[in-house]
């Protein structure tokens, strides 16, 4: 399928031609679309590429062998906007982690102090153009794809290289090119690491449980696992089975109305019928039957809990110094150093730039700016 604005690639011949184009250039703009809002198992549904002024949309669901495309991309500089998600998706769906450098336009805008970081906002700011919206919640696994959605997808990479060039000029003008390069390297390294297995005793702990009793937590955990299994079987996101707010409301009602039928409680989703309703009732019964010693508790969050007044004083002084320094630089304090890093630094009291960067998980430029404040 060809269009004046892009080339749609869903054949082996088209993919080979695209790989050949990529092999001849040093830099490629890239974006992806996935279906996490519509399916339990997230997958990559589109790969958008801009190569030497031409725009391509690759269909990974067309049954193609993408090895040649990924091989052509490997080692190239990739221009992305908000690279974290795309890099993790490429790794999880296609086992692809780029070996070449990346240029993240969103990160560049953040380091320059821009408040509006979306691609549409930056396109308006730097290019004076309005990009259409309307694809953020679309189910990209649908086939065939509507023409307006394909045009939306193509726009995600169409102007990225031009935007990157303008942002790079601004970074150089303000002496922040190295900041961006270092931070992109760290991002690339972290997104290439294995996330590891999730702690089964942590995954069900949603927000809003701070004051829950152990009996209430047992109900939440039982409902969460029921919801997860139903979502997995139906291949839909868990929130489409039961939202978090509904889950909490139901757990609280169940705790206060033992023995009352579910039909007397909060309204359940319309699809909670038959086998799904029976599974819900079973999960509730199992949660209620747990002996007290097997009911869960909320773990003590130690990461941001200070161990001494001296540590609190160090953190407060660091936070004030970072806020002042960030204000002079025209960037948010969290860009210079997030609070998690400040707590780690306050706790470890590092001295050298290497120690600051290591314990705070910071880039060298951040450690360099923080060192004078820490040494006081």
Give the structure's gist in a few sentences.
The protein has 376 residues and is of the alpha/beta class.
The helix/strand class is alpha/beta
Main sheet attributes: strand count, strand direction, barrel closure: 7 strands, mixed
| Contiguous helical run count | 16
CATH topology of the largest domain: Nucleotidyltransferase, domain 5
Can you tell me the residue ranges where pLDDT is under 50 for at least 5 consecutive residues?
A: none
The CATH architecture of the largest domain can be given as 2-Layer Sandwich
CATH top level of the largest domain is: Alpha Beta
CATH superfamily heading of the largest domain: Ribonuclease H-like superfamily/Ribonuclease H
- Helix coverage percent of residues? 40-55%
- Overall form: flat
Query: Mean pLDDT score, rounded?
Result: 93
Q: Radius of gyration, Cα only, in angstroms?
A: 25 Å
Helix and strand element order = EEHEEEHEHEHHHHHHHHHHHHH
Description:
The protein has 376 residues and is α/β, with parallel strands linked by helices. It folds into three domains: 2-191, 2-Layer Sandwich (Nucleotidyltransferase, domain 5), CATH 3.30.420; 214-294, Orthogonal Bundle (DNA polymerase, domain 1); 309-374, DNA polymerase, domain 1. It contains 16 helices and seven strands. Strands 1-2-5-4-3-6-7 form a seven-stranded mixed sheet, sandwiched between helices. Strand 4 (44-51) and strand 5 form a beta hairpin. Helix 4 (105-111) runs parallel beside helix 7 (160-173). The N and C termini lie far apart (64 Å).
